[in-house]
Amino acid sequence: MKFKIFSILGITLLCCFLAVTATLIESDKSNKLESRSTKSYLFDPLPKLTESSPATRYYHLELKVVKLSPDGYERPVWSVNDQYPGPLIQCNKGDRLVINVTNNSEDPATIHWHGIFQHNTNWYDGVPGQTQCPIPNRVSFTYNYTVDQFGTFWYHSHFLAQYVDGLVGVLIVHDPDDPYRNSYHEDYVITVSDWYHSPTAPLLVQRLAPHYTGFNPYPDSALISGVGQYNCSGAPAGYYCNRNVPPPTYNVNKGKKYRFRIINTSAYVTFTFSIDNHPLKVIEVEGTHVKNVSAATVTVIPIHVAQRYSVILDANQPVDNYYIRASIIDSCLPPRTNDTINYNSSINFNATGILHYQGAGSKKPTSTAYPFTIPLCQDLNASAIRPYKDSPAPSNVTNDFVFNITFARNDDDVGLLGINNSSFVPVFNNPTNLRIMLQENFTDFDKNQNAYGYDIPNGCVQITLLNNQPANHPFHLHGHTFWIVASGLGAFLSNISTSEYNLKNPVIRDTIIIPEFSHAVIRYLADNPGVWAFHCHIEWHVEMGLVAQLIERPTEFSNRTLPEDVRALCLQYDSYYKNHKRLTTLPRDSMVKRLRMFKKVK
Ligand SMILES: [Cu+2]
Predict the structure, then answer these.
(1) Domains of the chain by range and CATH?
(2) For 364-413, what is each residue's pLDDT tens digit?
(3) 9/83 Cα distance (integer angstroms)
(4) Cα 439–chain centre separation
(5) Rounded to the nearest whole angstrom, what is the distance from the C-alpha of residue 55 to the centroid of ligand 1?
(6) How many A from CA of 168 to the centre of ligand 1?
(7) Which SUPFAM superfamilies match (predicted)?
(8) Cα–Cα distance, 101 to 109 (Å, whole number)
(9) Which end of the chain is more exposed for a tag (fewer CB within 10 A), N or C?
């Protein structure tokens, strides 16, 4: 075994107080992955866009597996342009994004643009088996869409659990008419995420193994903006592990105001987010501006998987260093039973970063956390996030669906989640939107396609979600935002009284938590023909089947013209599989086989 002493370059001003000491490295000549470290854009204010809008903005994303150590522990990471999180994409409302994706990751992949409506471009929504075939390895594919909305978004792979392996990035759309534009000086992004030291393919194989009785895999770290501080106690002998990663640090100047865009890119966990001594004024939730009221100023924000908030921080405190806190809410998780994958993880649930006032020097913060007063595993109180402009929900429901969240074991004793007792199985090489375009009727699809359709132009779709399970599920709707007209305890229709519906000024967002034994009623307009996923965003639950497909206005959609490169991708994907000699050896490919197996069982 060979040890080297490494000194860490590029240390920020603040981290000088940390002793940067020796780190262990074992050189592993058999591993051919390149080891990279890149400075993240996340700690700088968003660069100003120079071109006037509407503009066409071009991006190139290369998907590639590299060795990175976000929390000090080195592992293969499914990176974008060698980075984790992937590079920033930003534009103005009205711009066109042309994003060329070159897949050199060895796996198939797709990119979903989380929260982007994809009006008239359903085939660029990036969901394998629903809106496109996966992009095979060594193939490039260009996403090309107009962005007619604004807000804080992210992008991520939608292929198996690839995003949990690192394939995520930030997408910001600026609003020329932002009512809060003059209320802050700089614009920062913060991501919070759980992080796993094992690649997800073996974790998924275990999670979906017959007779498995545990819960979702336990993460190893909590990251702030892609940076974590792992104590290395769980690192196997010989693995590179640096227990002195500098803390994620955001610099502010006293007297200025800062917008922070907070994004939870986790696979699993709910965080609370706070910055000591600094109340946060919420101004945006998932692409909708929030009303300027005193209730919008909060101290602690619960943020579930895939949710986003923008807040304004007033740097009006004494010049000092203060803790930024991202804490995993333990009580949102099931008990840590010893049959759960990675149950003995040495994770620190309370990740911290530093808000550094210019001139504060480098001493460690002594600030204390705000008391946590928000009800557990619920969304931020609705009074804090009312839409800036009152936006009544439509009152005439044209299509009414009830989705029961169900759990059952199949004939192989594999635990599966489902919508109305049906566990979704993607068919990667025959995506639903292509089938609709070939005039197939969704009512003829296999039951495990979980296809729910409606055909009334601009009708109002209502979905009642009933969660009679001891688990919390953050549900995300593609292609839309929705009005939350009701939510609360009780998982039966009898628990819901229509007289309590708020149609006047309900919260609008695209990702909602459905806590255990609870319900929610959402409405949205059928204004976007296409195939839209509606699913729990806990990645482990996605692979267990907690996914529905909403077939929106198939009559109209089937008459649209599919871009030739989208169709060609399916031919490339089929030939990739025919020629792929390692089909049975790559863990992620064995996952594909396993998913096909489910299809036979149910
Ligand atoms: Cu879930």
Answers:
(1) 399-556 (2.60.40.420)
(2) 999 999 998 666 699 999 999 999 999 999 999 999 999 999 999 988 89
(3) 17
(4) 33
(5) 38
(6) 19
(7) Cupredoxins
(8) 10
(9) N
Compute the distance from residue 387 Cα to the ligand 1 centre, in Å.
Answer: 26
Q: Tell me if 475 sits within 8 A of 465, measured CB to CB.
A: yes
- Give residue 214 CA to ligand 1 midpoint distance, Å: 15
Q: Chain-wide mean pLDDT for the chain?
A: 90
Tell me the CA–centroid distance for residue 541 and ligand 1, in Å.
5
53 closest CA partner among 97, 2, 111: 97
Helix H or strand E segment including 564: helix 564-579
Rg, the chain, Cα only = 23
What's the gap in Å between 590 CA and the centre of ligand 1?
23
pLDDT digits (tens, 9 = 90+) for 429-446: 899 999 999 999 999 999
Contact 305, 264 (CB under 8 A): yes
How far, in Å, CA of 332 to CA of 335, rounded? Answer: 9
The phi, psi pair for 162, rounded to 5°, reads: -60, -30
3-state SS class at 233: coil
> Percentage of residues in the chain with pLDDT exceeding 90?
81
Distance 598 CA to ligand 1 centre (A): 19
Which amino acid would we find at residue 106?
A: E
CA of 420 to the centre of ligand 1 (A): 14
Q: What digits encode the pLDDT tens for the residues 35-46?
A: 444 567 899 999
89: tokens are 């994409």
Q: Which of the residue ranges 104-113, 178-187, 236-245 would you say has the lowest mean pLDDT?
A: 236-245
**The pTM of the whole model exceeds 0.90:** yes
pLDDT of residue 595: 56
For residues 252 and 44, is the Cβ–Cβ distance under 8 A? Answer: no
CA of 199 to the centre of ligand 1 (A): 20
Q: Whose structure tokens read 């895999």?
A: 217
